Every structure is written in C-alpha cells, then in structure tokens.
Amino acid sequence: MHLGARPVNDVLRSHFVRAKLMPWLERADQLVLLGDAVEMRQGPIRDALDVSRPFFGELGEAVGGKRVVIVPGNHDHPLLPERPAEQFERPVRAGEAGSLGEIASWLPQTELVLSYPGYRIRPDVYAIHGHYLDCHNTVPTVESILVSFSKRRVKLPRDGRLSVSDYENTVGPLYTLGFKMAQRARSAAGTPSKKAWEMLARSDGDPGVAARVLGGALVPGGVAALNRLGFGPFNPEISGPALRVAGLLAMGEVVERLGVEADYVIFGHTHRTGPLERDEDREWVTPNGIRLVNTGNWVYEPVFLDRSPAESPYWPGGLVVVEDSGPPRVERTLMDLQHEDFRPILEPSSRVLWPDPRDLDSSPPS
Fold it and tell me: Angle of helix 240-258 relative to helix 164-183, nearest 10 degrees?
C-alpha cells in the first residue's frame, strides 16, 4: 500500500478508493497486510503514520473483532522491534512502544498480529512480502546491486539452504540505513531505483535504449563490469518479459532455499499482479511445484501503466482471496477506474510530477 509515499501515489490515502476496498474486507475472516503497508523509506515516519491513520481507522470499522496480520516488507521493515533470526508470530497490544503500538490503538476491537518473514494462512498457503528475492534478482536495480555488495560482506552462500537470519544479515543493514536517511529527508524526490525505472519506462520498449538507461543511471561501468567484479550475476537484457521472469525465478529461489513447505506462496514485492490469464502458467511454478501468486499493489505509477487498465499488470487495486479450500484467487478491485479518476486523488502533486497518461507510448515492464 505504501501509505505516506513521497511523492504522493498511494491511492488508499483517498476515501474514494478506500470505499471500494472496505466491502471486500468486511467479508473476510482475517486480513493479511503483506508488506510495505506504511512507507518508511521516503520521508519521516511521523508523516507516514499521519497519512496511514484514516485507512486503519476505517479498517477497524470494517473488520471489527477479526484478525489483522501485519507482515513487514522492506519499506516498513522498521516495524520489527529487532532483527529476527527465524520465523515468528506475536500479538500486538495498543500502548506498546513504537509504531506498531500506535497502529494497534487505531484498531481497538481487532486482534492485531505481527508475523515475519511470512504468515501461514492455510496449511498449504504461505504469504511473504518477497523482498528477499533481491538477493537473487538478475535485474540490476539499485536495490539488487546494493544487496549484491552486502551478500559478499556477509558471505551469503550461493547454494544450499538459507535461514531467515542469513537473509536478514544481508538486507537488514540496508533497510536500517534507508530508514535513517528518510528521517532526515527534506524533499519528495523519491528513490534512485524509482527514477531509473521511470527512465526505463520512457525508453519506449527499445531494449538497447533500456540497457543504456539502466547501465548509465545505476552502474557507470555497466552490467558487464559488475559481473567481472564478481557481483550479480546480472542479466544485460532489460525488457518487460525479462523483468517478470527474473522476479519470479528469484522468488522461487527464496521459497526453495528457505525450505517453505506449501502448495501456494503469495508475495507482493515486485508489484506485478499475477498470474493473469495471458501469463505463461509454467513461469509461476517453482522447480518443486509450488505455485506463486502476486497480490499486485495500491500505488499509481503512470510510467508503468498502459492506456488501458486491462492491459496493465501494475494497475493498482490488487488483492488475493484465500478461501477455505482451492487455489488463491487474484482480484483486481479498481479495474472500473481510468487514469483520469486518479488525478483528483493525487492533486496537487500529480499536476507537477505525473505526465498525462495519454502521452505515454511505453509498454509497462511486466
């Protein structure tokens, strides 16, 4: 959800959008907020919590005394009281120290639970934000490159089982640094990764231009130089299919190396809803036969979107419904909206920061 994002693109800060989501939540027995619920890496935490409070207040009214589970991701990693060494789950009480205690006070009738790095929804369904995939991603984003440096520092094994502690020792220091920098932030410039992906989206689908964008914006020496230095391995191919496949392969590696036992694993880190009808089914299955499902996102990024919501796997409004039995089901709750519907939500920032979607010719990275 990235509530409190800077610049403003978190659509659930709008009551208009929340009114479309809450009827779904009223029918649920429990709700899992699968990471990056509150944006803590783009500005002061107090600002993000102030933006988040209306959502959580309406959520409390919608779910009543039901269970709400918070599974932190990389952008709200500071919700964790300490760096965990293994899977854990605990109740959150109103009045306890920190941001979680404040959130709990906004949900007085709700059973609030903190679970990390994932949550067992059903014996055969495991949900995890998915940020550990940056340790295996072959696409040279800023985050993946920084993680590759950290992997060498902590000597993360290239093969074999990995523990939660292994992953946390690799990514945790980066998240802590990002959070500390955000608390001193004075502008809404966004992150280097985001700037580069905006440039990529404007490359109009030309893989040569896209490669130069990423190579020039992220790594002055280029992808080949990184690989020669022993980082990565990173793939020089930058395209919609390459981005999608790399993310799924990396998520599959996380699942296998953590030893997750499940038929289905739900994640959300890449923001790419799926699988969709046009997707290749085999891409969403790990080597051991575990099926991957991605929740999508609740942020509006015009540079990642096509003119039509139906053609945009990054269109906001995604969620996953898990029934008592059967496969998890992707739902896209904002497909009745068009680009122009988001302009009043994001004003005044959208007047300055977002191009008119009708002027965009680039296909979204899938």
Answer: 130
